[in-house]
Write a sequence for this structure.
């Protein structure tokens, strides 16, 4: 039943919608005669859930000229559960109708600017079609990640059957807003070696932890330390856009952090934790005491065993400076990528329009075999080969050979010698937790810090999140897992911050991941570790497909390419706690549905 069908039809099968078409005929039942898991999840244009109009009174200091008001449609132009992007003259808004009531908010996801009208409306929020962020349609608040900002909301009223939106012009232009944050009221000299909350790491887990504390009214000192020399930036873009500067990638500016009393110490590497004295020592000798500690140091490259490690122009992609150097050195030169991780493959794709040649070395038979399955991996491999990438699979590096200390050749275990002017190691990573191993914190055999559902470690006052942790995952009966996704790190940071403030928060999210290559994006939601079958709908050869990963009889994850917003729809179903059965997906394949609204 699993795998690719012999003659894949150009099916635009969005599982939820396909089931919904059958529901119209069988009164809410899926093809197997049972209640559909997609009953509450509606794509744009189908029944869904909404919220009342945002009727927040205008702040008295705003002048009428700061606002624009426009009639955007007739009251009957939208069905319940529909969304429409509307033009107000000074900008656009997303108009939503539910239960006969209208609401309006920003139309672009503040994460990467995705059009939310193509997203999924369900239970009072809209889920982004690209990366799964969720926004409350009544308040605009960010309810699930990735991203840091919420959306502005606008007043809606109906007069003489016309829907009228009144919106702040600046909000229409910015399409984003930050939640209000408190300031630090504690009188502490910045040179004082004590912080009420000390955060190690400035990635999404650390940054969201700090911002959540301020959003929730925390008024004591917050210090965030990072090995980087830059303010927080979007690391996921490094491998996709090698020429981007730290300024172009930044998540928050120094001015923003200072305005909200989040102190950032750059180029600080933690080397030891003393849980008895509640202190952290850094490589430069700085010692900081804390009341609460959050460890979010991320990962580091897997150590390699080849000869010639001292040769220049061999990179582990960690910083914008690394990315810029790789792009510069590869220009019209020979580039070699070691490893078929998502980072390694994204770098290979990014270099094809710069380098003279791009070669990829992998230890598996096809890229992404473990994560996406062999058939999807082969399809993606063909895409790379069509773009001049040469693969050397089932191979490893034996030696790096240089001339005057600069890389010239890469020797493989097979004996093959590749010309190389620049090499990028993308062979995977391990948790950056070496500094905690003698601290008394519980670290497993692979170096991961184990935490509970509140992101608490076994030591009082010490929390951890992001790539470094093994945490209980509810969909797997709270089995402890490591999910090194950018989106998941945001969730960890928020949960840890709320717990620090004594506010228990459940980890209600669905893991969401994406990878971009040659202008095409793979989207992935769920936790597919240990999948035993893959059901593919669509056309792998055309790279227009959706793959359902099953474990026993249950769908545990989904991946797609050119099938938006299927992954966000499945994420919405999984987030509701419902189960998608393998037989439901197989039935859809047999139905051969041709339409794919979205």
């Amino acid at each position: 039943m699993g795998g690719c069908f012999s003659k894949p039809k150009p099916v635009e099968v969005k599982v939820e919608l396909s089931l919904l078409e059958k529901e119209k005929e069988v009164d809410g039942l899926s093809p197997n005669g049972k209640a559909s898991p997609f009953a509450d999840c509606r794509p744009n244009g189908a029944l869904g859930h909404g919220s009342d109009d945002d009727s927040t009174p205008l702040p008295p200091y705003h002048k009428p000229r700061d606002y624009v008001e426009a009639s955007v449609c007739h009251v009957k132009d939208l069905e319940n559960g529909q969304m429409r992007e509307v033009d107000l003259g000074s900008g656009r808004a997303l108009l939503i109708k539910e239960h006969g009531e209208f609401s309006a908010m920003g139309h672009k996801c503040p994460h990467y600017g995705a059009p939310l009208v193509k997203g999924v409306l369900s239970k009072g929020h809209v889920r982004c079609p690209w990366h799964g962020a969720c926004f409350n349609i009544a308040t605009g608040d960010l309810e699930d990640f990735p991203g840091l900002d919420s959306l502005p909301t606008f007043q809606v009223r109906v007069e003489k059957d016309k829907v009228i939106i009144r919106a702040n012009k600046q909000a229409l232009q910015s399409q984003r807003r930050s939640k209000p944050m408190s300031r630090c009221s504690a009188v502490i000299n910045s040179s004082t070696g004590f912080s009420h909350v000390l955060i190690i790491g400035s990635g999404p887990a650390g940054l969201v932890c700090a911002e959540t504390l301020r959003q929730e009214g925390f008024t004591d000192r917050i210090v965030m330390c990072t090995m980087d020399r830059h303010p927080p930036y979007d690391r996921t873009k490094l491998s996709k856009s090698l020429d981007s500067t730290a300024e172009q990638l930044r998540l928050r500016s120094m001015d923003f952090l200072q305005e909200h009393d989040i102190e950032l110490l750059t180029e600080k590497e933690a080397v030891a934790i003393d849980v008895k004295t509640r202190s952290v020592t850094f490589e430069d000798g700085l010692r900081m005491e804390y009341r609460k500690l959050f460890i979010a140091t991320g990962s580091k490259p897997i150590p390699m065993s080849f000869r010639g490690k001292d040769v220049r122009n061999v990179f582990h992609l960690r910083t914008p400076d690394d990315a810029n150097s790789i792009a510069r050195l590869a220009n019209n030169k020979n580039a070699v990528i070691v490893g078929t991780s998502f980072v390694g493959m994204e770098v290979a794709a990014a270099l094809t329009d710069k380098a003279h040649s791009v070669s990829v070395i992998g230890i598996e038979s096809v890229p992404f075999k473990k994560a996406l399955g062999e058939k999807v991996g082969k399809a993606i491999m063909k895409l790379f080969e069509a773009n001049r990438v040469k693969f050397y699979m089932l191979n490893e590096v034996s030696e790096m050979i240089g001339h005057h200390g600069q890389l010239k050749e890469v020797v493989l275990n097979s004996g093959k010698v590749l010309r190389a002017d620049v090499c990028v190691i993308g062979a995977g990573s391990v948790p950056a937790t070496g500094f905690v191993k003698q601290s008394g914190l519980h670290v497993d055999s692979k170096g991961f810090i184990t935490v509970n559902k509140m992101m608490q470690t076994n030591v009082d006052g010490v929390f951890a999140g992001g790539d470094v942790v093994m945490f209980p995952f509810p969909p797997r009966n709270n089995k402890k897992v490591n999910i090194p996704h950018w989106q998941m790190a945001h969730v960890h940071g928020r949960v840890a911050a709320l717990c620090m403030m004594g506010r228990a928060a459940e980890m209600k999210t669905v893991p969401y991941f994406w990878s971009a290559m040659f202008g095409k994006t793979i989207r992935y939601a769920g936790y597919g570790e240990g999948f035993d079958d893959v059901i593919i709908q669509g056309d792998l050869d055309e790279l227009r497909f959706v793959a359902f990963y099953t474990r026993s009889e249950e769908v545990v994850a989904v991946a797609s390419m050119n099938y938006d917003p299927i992954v966000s729809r499945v994420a919405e179903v999984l987030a509701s706690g419902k189960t998608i059965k393998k037989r439901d997906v197989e039935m859809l394949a047999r139905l051969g549905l041709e339409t794919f609204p979205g």
